[in-house]
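Researcher: Go.
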Amino acid sequence: MGKFRDGAGDAEILASLHPTNIYAVSRILPFLLLLVVSIALAHYFQPAFYGLAYLLAIWTWWRFLSVIFINYILTRELIIVRKGIIARSYNSLELFRVKDYNVEQSFFMRLFGIMSVRLYTTDLTTDTLDIKGVPLSNITAQIRDLVQEARIKNRIFEIN
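Model: Structure:
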C-alpha cells in the first residue's frame, strides 16, 4: 500500500482509513442549519446577516475539511493519527499497548455503513484512541492480529 516515513525509518502501511464524507457532513450539520437560518434572516430582514452567513460558510467548510483530512494509518507496529489541513500533527500509538477495543455503530452509522472504533490502551499520553466515522471493514480483526504479533515480538505478556 505504501510507506510511512517516521523518525526511525520507513514503515509499511497496511491500512489507511479516512472518515467518510457522510460522517463529515454529520459533524457540521448544526453549522449548516445556522448557515441556512442566517441566509434567510439576511434575505427577509437585515442584509447585514449576509456577513454572518459568509463567516459561517467559511467556518463550516473549514470544519468539514478538518474532518476529511484526518488519516488513520496502520503499520505492523503503530497506529498513527495524522490531522491537519495546513499544519500537520501526528499521534502514534504502539500496537502492543492496545488492551481492548469497542466498535460503535449508531442507527445513522449502520444506515450508511460507517463505524467508529475506540481503542483502550496503556499508553501514558493516549489512554483511548478513537477512530471515528470510517467505512465498515474488518479493521478490528486486523488490529487484533497485529496487537498479538507486536506483543509476541516485544515479549509483552498480560498477567491478570
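Model: Residues 3-19+70-153 form a domain with the PH-domain like fold (CATH 2.30.29.30).
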